[in-house]
Design brief:
By secondary structure, the protein is an alpha+beta fold. It has two helices and four strands.
Length: 154
């Protein structure tokens, strides 16, 4: 029986925190502040070829907590992973890098942020699940729309 070498391969080679920053600018006075902070979360993800069939995928989040205009805390984290992806190209590869890989990384990012906020002396912030497929589709639509706009400019 011969082995099928054309079969797609998708494996996690390494998971890691690439960048982590925590600021509590008003400490220790901030711990006396009354009120519930307003939490603002921004997220994005990127992918790049490292070499050959190895790709780095990063999921980044910035969490800012404010009471009125005062920043209570600010956490920025980039959770990364190296994946080996073979025998995929075109849209299946793009979808793997833009949807499947970030879905694997996201729980680790959630834990990193939650632990950082807890260690700063605050109740943990739990990131809500992220729909990476919707983000991927929106990005593709934006790219398609900008190509259409560029085509009409010529």
């Amino acid at each position: 029986m011969s082995e099928n070498n054309d079969k797609p391969i998708f494996s996690i080679e390494k998971l890691y925190v690439k960048d982590l920053s925590l600021e509590v600018p008003g400490a220790p006075a901030v711990f006396k502040q009354q009120g519930t902070p307003k939490i603002d979360i921004t997220m994005n993800n990127t992918a790049q070829v490292i070499e050959g069939d190895y790709y780095e995928v990063l999921v980044r989040a910035t969490v800012t907590a404010k009471i009125e205009e005062a920043t209570i805390f600010l956490v920025e984290a980039s959770q990364g992973a190296v994946f080996q992806i073979r025998n995929l190209s075109g849209e299946p590869l793009e979808m793997t890098l833009g949807i499947a890989a970030p879905n694997i990384i996201f729980p680790y990012l959630r834990e990193t942020i939650s632990e950082a906020v807890s260690k700063a002396g605050f109740p943990p912030v739990l990131l809500q699940p992220m729909n990476f497929e919707a983000v991927y589709r929106a990005r593709k639509e934006e790219q398609s729309a900008s190509k259409d706009t560029d085509a009409t400019k010529h």
